[in-house]
Sequence to fold (196 residues):
Amino acid sequence: CGGTIIRLPITPPLPADPHITDPSLHRTLQAREAQAICLVERFERQRDPAPLTHTPNLSLTSDPIDSPTSPKTADSARHTVFVNALAILDALISEYPLYASAHNNRAQLRRWRYLDGRTALENREGELARLRAPCKNGDGGGSGSGGDDVVANILADLDSVVSLATPPTRPGHGMGAVSPAQARLLAAAWMQKGSV
Fold:
């Protein structure tokens, strides 16, 4: 839709993150991120097990509201996973605010919890207004302040990713080079921004 395309040179020997240049520290931060990601992946695997071909002892008197797959129970479990994963990413970002990948994963986590794969345009009928309203339990932004705007927090994290991962402009030479990991991170952030 008429945007400017900037091609960045990709240079494999560059560090994966321009702000975290110690490879050992970078691996440690990736491992901490993986803890949050694994919580969500584990939840998704348990939520959508392989379809059963036979359901023995099916009781017609069981209360569907209390079943582990009921929407009420699933949303509560999803929220618990979200809060736990968010705490991991918030702590990581608090310690290493220049670590762009954690901002990207926190934005993705919020999208998973609140947008559930839908775009903002698909949420127009009241849902987007609800997402822009302050979160009653203060979990939308990870700051615990209570007045969090979910969409704004997702976009703020993605803006941080783009700002942190975009190389500075070199006078007379244009944009600097990026590592392959940095290029993938920038692509992921821009794709998420487009979907929100």
User: Anything to note?
Assistant: The first helix runs from residue 23 to 47. The helical segments are 23-47, 71-95, 100-115, 127-132, 150-165, 180-195. The longest strand covers residues 169-170. The CA atoms of residues 132 and 151 lie 6 Å apart.
